[in-house]
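## retry 2 of 3
previous attempt timed out at serialization; input unchanged, resubmitting
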Amino acid sequence: MATPNDVIDLVDSRTSELLLVLDSLADADMRAPSLLPGWTRGHVVTHLARNADALDNLFRWAETGEETPAYVSREARDADIEAGAHRSADALLDDLTAASLRWIVTARRLPELAWDRVVLHRPGREIPGSWIPMLRAGEVILHHYDLDLGYEPDQWPGGWVSLALHDAARELTDRAGEPLALRAIDSGFGVGDGGGRTVSGTQADLLAWVTRGRVGPSLTTAGDLPELGPWR
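## retry succeeded, writing output
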């Protein structure tokens, strides 16, 4: 089982990899569409920066016990993303670099007690502080894919994929509108009791389908894949 510090190391390495890729982009590249509907790459990069700040707020909550929500409101979050999305490539990169560094510095100095304190990630979902690094890992890895810069699911780190798939499969039956199980052909990992159909594939393809609706080449099931409702 990965510890929070293991995941912080993963976030650090994957963020460095992402920043290196972004450093090669020009202003026009940041204006190009991402894989997320209605968002350019500039929107994705701005969201990643503000998400680092939001998760810093949850770190503060976990450390002190003082309620500090991730975002003031959904509307404020969306407004910040829109306001920052149209900056130059250099400004976007500088912002994400600085926000990521702040997040890493805070994560590495947190006391052990912070990992056990429960915080509210979003309405209706409480998490222990130890899960905050996993939230950031998901943001960095999945949004790197969303940037449409050639970072594909088979490049996602396997240990993280297993952890993330278990979490992402919550409410899968509700999203699919039918009982559904997942079986990974490369790891033996499974989610669901098999009371209905089973979707099989590599664990990376399963995670990409559950979180991004991407139908990878290894996915199989009886009949057509069900259309999933929104994730999160």
